């Protein structure tokens, strides 16, 4: 409908933009000057802590210096409450005490019809709420108690119950004078194809009201109580009020909470949203039985720049996340994205909160993956990437996804990020392969008799080597810049486990990063497991550089000590391996010198660790192992008729 000339000017002149905006923000008293109408606040359209949102009340305009949102009172109401233009005008006209111009008869008739439909929906909500208190709802109430829902939660979300009666709601509404056609049009009853009497659409189900952005009831969701029900969850059909592809459960309260800075979380179902809200995550919404649509994505981006997608931790949930990536890539714009909260396998947010409380959920939120990272994981999962053609195939698939991004700047950054991930992964795989190859070559060389000899027995201690390597990696994760001091030594080291070699490769590639940034690079390339393992090791927890994370000198001492120990151990092993081959030829003079030299180097490393016991807590265990090996060496030398170089 058209508005008469001057109506909008009169509306704007009657309104205080500061009052309209003040319903949604907290003014910054230090920056604001109310007398001059110069008001500042954190922006309600994007999450921020500083007051970059400016309102000029005298001119009637607002502008955000962060997200560049701008407009007048009408645009503010439209954007903040997700309304159409005329709806926003109506809201402001009521506030200003102005009478809306008369609509044309057909438009007014349509508006009145929608109003009656909403009244029918509200009556249905009240009816089902009352039914929850009846004897027929005993099983439903027991179920809700088991799920942890108290009376306050039931009232807050207006949860009700639809009994098994075929025409319970229908007859209740008809008794209040509601026409049958209106009950069917609202989606509350279904009309049989044969033209018979209408019957309730929701029967034997817990009922969840669905409301629009203004808090008006537009539909219902029902959870079946019978295991053999046709569908576990049932939503209202499409009606003049309800389109499930354009709606979100808990939309209005979540939008308000997101405007106050809470993270916007997208869960899978009603119970997940309720559990999140009860745990303090009030900006929680859910799609309504379908995958997230383009329209819902737009709704989410109006509330937050980076909504958090927290779908169930099963194959179906992960598949839904992957489909959402494909939907989102072409729609990405600067400052608008998604992050993914990966739930533990077999758990949804409700399960997680009941098991671990809000802290468990917050930990997952803090570690949410950006969309580019989940795209990388999806494309590399289960793929073998050791050969050139395999790597080329991966790069071709990634290029196809990047090409789907319409925004050229975002396309550039996605391309750069994915190429960096590919480079780091290929480098780590190649490094691990080289280490395995050298180790395999060393193991293939010795004869069977040599492997069984006292020399091989004396040189074997994989536990000690693994502990030293773990100390090196842990120290470097806390102080990545130390890698530059020992880079050549680290690259020449023969790591005892491929996982250690791979992690070392990532660290060396990002040695200029901060500790937090380095850990994120590790997560991006190798996942969380390597970090969790190192963080959980008791023998590392007692070391000084771990007890005092900021003590760089302590970390350097531990790093150098562990390196010297490993280098001495590996040098000793190499000399012994070569010396074994000489035993058969009785090259006693050369053998004596090499054994003495190797034993002396090893002994010095052990003695140095004993001297550093106060700064290197694992040294005591290392020294004990060293003494055991030393005894074996002494016995070996005695058997060969040689003397200990220290005697």
From TrEMBL:
Write out the entry's keywords from A to Z. Answer: DNA replication, DNA-binding, DNA-directed RNA polymerase, Magnesium, Metal-binding, Nucleotidyltransferase, Primosome, Transcription, Transferase, Zinc, Zinc-finger
Gene3D superfamilies according to UniProt: 3.40.1360.10, DNA primase, catalytic core, N-terminal domain (3.90.980.10), Zinc finger, CHC2-type domain (3.90.580.10)
Q: Which reaction does it catalyse?
A: ssDNA + n NTP = ssDNA/pppN(pN)n-1 hybrid + (n-1) diphosphate
Keyword Transferase belongs to the record: yes
What's one GO MF term for it? DNA binding
Please list the cofactors this protein needs. Answer: Zn(2+)
UniProt GO BP: DNA replication, synthesis of primer
Q: Which GO terms describe its cellular component?
A: cytoplasm; DNA-directed RNA polymerase complex; primosome complex
ZnF (CHC2-type) ranges: 43-67
State which Enzyme Commission number(s) the record gives.
Answer: 2.7.7.101
Similarity-based family: Belongs to the DnaG primase family.
**Subunit-structure text:** Monomer. Interacts with DnaB.
Description of its domains = Contains an N-terminal zinc-binding domain, a central core domain that contains the primase activity, and a C-terminal DnaB-binding domain.
Q: What is this protein called?
A: DNA primase
What is the protein's species of origin?
A: Rhodosalinus halophilus
> What taxonomic classification does the UniProt entry list for its organism?
Bacteria, Pseudomonadati, Pseudomonadota, Alphaproteobacteria, Rhodobacterales
């Amino acid at each position: 409908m058209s508005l008469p000339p001057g109506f909008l000017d009169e509306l704007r002149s009657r309104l205080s933009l500061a009052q309209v905006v003040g319903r949604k923000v907290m003014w910054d008293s230090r920056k604001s000057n109310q007398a001059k109408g110069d008001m500042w606040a954190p922006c309600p359209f994007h999450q921020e802590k500083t007051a970059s949102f400016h309102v000029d009340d005298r001119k009637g305009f607002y502008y955000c210096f962060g997200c560049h949102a701008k407009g007048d009172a009408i645009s503010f109401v439209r954007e903040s409450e997700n309304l159409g233009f005329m709806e926003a005008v109506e809201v402001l006209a009521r506030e200003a005490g102005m009478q809306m111009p008369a609509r044309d008869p057909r438009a007014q008739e349509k508006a009145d019809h929608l109003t009656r439909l909403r009244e029918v929906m509200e009556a249905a909500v009240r009816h089902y709420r009352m039914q929850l208190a009846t004897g027929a709802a005993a099983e439903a109430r027991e179920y809700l108690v088991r799920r942890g829902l108290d009376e306050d939660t039931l009232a807050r979300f207006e949860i009700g119950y639809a009994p098994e009666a075929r025409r319970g709601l229908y007859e209740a509404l008809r008794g209040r004078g509601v026409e049958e056609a209106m009950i069917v049009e609202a989606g509350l009853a279904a009309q049989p194809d044969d033209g018979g009497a209408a019957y309730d659409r929701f029967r034997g189900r817990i009922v969840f009201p669905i409301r629009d952005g203004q808090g008006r009831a537009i539909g219902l969701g029902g959870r079946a109580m019978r295991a053999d029900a046709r569908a576990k969850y049932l939503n209202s059909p499409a009606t003049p009020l309800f389109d499930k592809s354009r709606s979100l459960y808990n939309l209005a309260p979540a939008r308000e909470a997101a405007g106050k800075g809470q993270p916007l979380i997208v869960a899978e179902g009603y119970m997940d949203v309720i559990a999140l809200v009860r745990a303090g995550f009030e900006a929680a919404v859910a799609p309504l039985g379908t995958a997230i649509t383009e329209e819902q994505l737009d709704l989410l981006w109006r509330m937050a720049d980076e909504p958090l997608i927290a779908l169930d931790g099963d194959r179906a949930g992960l598949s839904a996340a992957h489909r959402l990536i494909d939907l989102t890539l072409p729609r990405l714009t600067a400052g608008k994205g998604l992050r993914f909260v990966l739930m533990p396998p077999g758990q949804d947010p409700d399960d997680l909160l009941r098991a671990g409380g809000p802290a468990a959920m917050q930990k997952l939120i803090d570690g949410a993956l950006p969309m580019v990272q989940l795209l990388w994981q999806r494309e590399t999962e289960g793929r073998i990437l050791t050969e050139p053609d395999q790597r080329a195939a991966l790069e071709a698939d990634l290029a196809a996804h990047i090409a789907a991004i319409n925004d050229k700047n975002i396309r550039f950054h996605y391309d750069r990020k994915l190429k960096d991930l590919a480079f780091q992964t290929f480098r780590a795989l190649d490094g691990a392969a080289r280490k395995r190859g050298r180790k395999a070559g060393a193991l293939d060389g010795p004869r069977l008799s040599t492997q069984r000899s006292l020399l091989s027995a004396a040189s074997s201690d994989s536990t000690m080597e693994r502990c030293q390597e773990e100390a090196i990696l842990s120290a470097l994760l806390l102080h990545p810049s130390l890698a530059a001091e020992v880079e050549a030594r680290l690259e020449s080291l023969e790591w005892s486990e491929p996982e250690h070699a791979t992690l070392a490769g990532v660290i060396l590639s990002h040695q200029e990063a901060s500790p937090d940034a380095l850990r994120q690079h590790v997560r991006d390339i190798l996942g969380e497991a390597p970090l969790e393992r190192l963080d959980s090791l008791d023998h590392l927890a007692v070391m000084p550089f771990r007890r005092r994370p900021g003590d760089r000198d302590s970390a350097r001492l531990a790093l150098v000590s562990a390196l010297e120990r490993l280098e001495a151990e590996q040098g000793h092993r190499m000399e012994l391996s070569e010396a074994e081959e000489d035993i058969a030829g009785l090259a006693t003079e050369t053998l004596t010198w090499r054994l003495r030299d190797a034993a002396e180097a090893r002994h010095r490393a052990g003695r140095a660790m004993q001297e550093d016991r106060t700064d290197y807590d694992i040294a005591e265990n290392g020294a004990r192992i060293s003494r055991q090996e030393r005894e074996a060496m002494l016995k070996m030398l005695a058997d060969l008729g040689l003397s200990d170089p220290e005697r």
